[in-house]
Amino acid sequence: MAASSAETTQLPSPAGAAAAPRSNEPSGRAQVVGTGLIGGSVAAALRKSGWHVTGRDAVGDHAQRALELGCLDAVGTDPEATFCVVAVPAAMLAEQVAIALADTAAAGAVVTDTGSVKTPVAQAIADARFVPGHPMAGSEQDGIEGANPDMFAGAVWALTPNETTDDSSLRACQAVLAGFGSDVVTMTPERHDALVAVVSHVPHLAAASLMCLADDRALDDAPLLRLAAGGFRDMTRIAAGHPGIWLDICGENRDAIVSVLDELSERLTQMREVVAGADRDGLRAVLTQARRARTNLPSRYVRPQELLEVRVPIPDRKGQIAAITMLAADCDVNVADIEVAHSPEGAEGVLVLVVARTEAQRFLAALAGQGYHPTTRDLA
């Protein structure tokens, strides 16, 4: 896709539900590449946060519709953008990230993406300004008409820096996404792909399989789908997602997905044996474990008294922010906020992280184990 200058068309009055009020103070200029459901929602979230947002899409009508809905300020490419999000299908991702980096080189923009599989693009792009990312959010709706500026509030947004990602780029990206209300988690691309196979990719395939099973049975027993109650609908809701994106996901993350499918198959076989053998104790143990795990899924913290500020002195050396935020992920510690306080003298700064009080002790122990010397402070 060739670069072009941003159009000067003024934003019309919002025409759809995707439009959002702008903050009083602009945050800067942003570029969005790909104005479908996710890209359109990113654009709307950026505008809501006060950014001037320019967007483009391989299908021109899509970007124009995003403009009409109030998700964009202009259609085209903005070489002055300092933050760029690439939200295109997996097959186009590396190419479009490279173009976005070139388009915004003069402004030194931080570039991230929204792909569901991170290893391929992280290996393909070696640039200090690129921060591979994946928002764990979506909708059963398709395209820009379903864009929602609040889609990422409370949702996990994974960042997977590679060896060339600069700490300042990572920190800038974390700050923007935290401004959406996202729970930003940092990890390696390879670990991300292994984990999302468990919590995202295989659940979608399982829901699709269950939905097809019910659909096939309904051919012989018409009332079946009329009996579908809340539990069935909740479990198969994600099967309503657009099939197209899953072809690329299953291709790019094939090995991890197949491994998890094998493990799920083994567990279903074990469940079959427990039920077939009328093993009440075994069944109770499985259901109790599942119930406990489900009720203990992480939640976000909203009360300041539940939070603690952890201050970590760090040397001015590449990779320190990534290393510490990855350590937080390893410890299952949610980082609610992050910033760097630079020392006016010497080559050292302080990384300031806000974490839950209940999680702080294990994080402090892990930091000490890695040779860091953290301190804590109550939030004012």
Give a written overview of the molecule:
Helices cover 43% and strands 17% of the residues. The protein is α/β, with parallel strands linked by helices. The chain has 3 domains: 28-187, NAD(P)-binding Rossmann-like Domain (Rossmann fold), CATH 3.40.50; 192-294, 6-phosphogluconate dehydrogenase C-terminal fold (Orthogonal Bundle); 306-378, 2-Layer Sandwich (Alpha-Beta Plaits), CATH 3.30.70. A hairpin with a 5-residue loop joins strand 11 and strand 12 (348-356). Helix 6 (189-218) packs across helix 9.
Average pLDDT value? Answer: 86
The number of distinct helices, counting runs of at least 4 residues, comes to 12
Uncertain segments of ≥5 residues (pLDDT<50)?
1-21
SSE ordering = EHEHEEHEHEEEHEHHHHHEHEEHE
| Structure summary, number of beta strands | 13
At the first level of CATH, what is the class of the largest domain? Alpha Beta
Kindly give the count of domains: 3
Whole-Å distance between the termini? 49 Å
CATH topology of the largest domain: Rossmann fold
What percentage of residues falls in helices of 4 or more residues?
Answer: 40-55%
Radius of gyration: 23 Å
* Relative strand content: 15-25%
